[in-house]
Amino acid sequence: MTTADQVASVRYIVDDVRAAVDFYTTHLGFTVNFDAAPAFADVIRGPLRLLLSGPTSSGARATPAEDAGAGRNRIHLIVDDLDAEVGRLREAGLPFRSDVVTGPGGRQILLADPAGNLVELFQPAPTR
Hints:
Layout: E1 8-13, H1 17-27, E2 31-36, E3 40-45, E4 48-53, H2 58-61, E5 74-78, H3 82-91, E6 101-103, E7 106-112, E8 118-124
Parallel strand pairs: 1-4, 5-8
Antiparallel strand pairs: 2-3, 3-4, 6-7, 7-8
């Protein structure tokens, strides 16, 4: 079990660790926790530790090359104002992989990092 002061870690296989660190720190509010680029770095936002594994990292070598591509899994980041975030990130030229989708729980859009890994930006529906 984890305690409240621990973080959850997710590993993303990336082509370029430096580009991934720049993407997450510049655009999504992560801070660098450890940097061993070009092989590996990890960045943190709240309780999420994102492990960015380049081609020469042990994490990437453990994944067969044919399975290393980005999939439908994604990290989920909650935002206060989805429209403002989308506008800011579009202005920065970042690639979205979906349009805004609205459901009973809120609104979301998918953004791709430099390696094609998905990031879901989610604005919860207002509580009644």
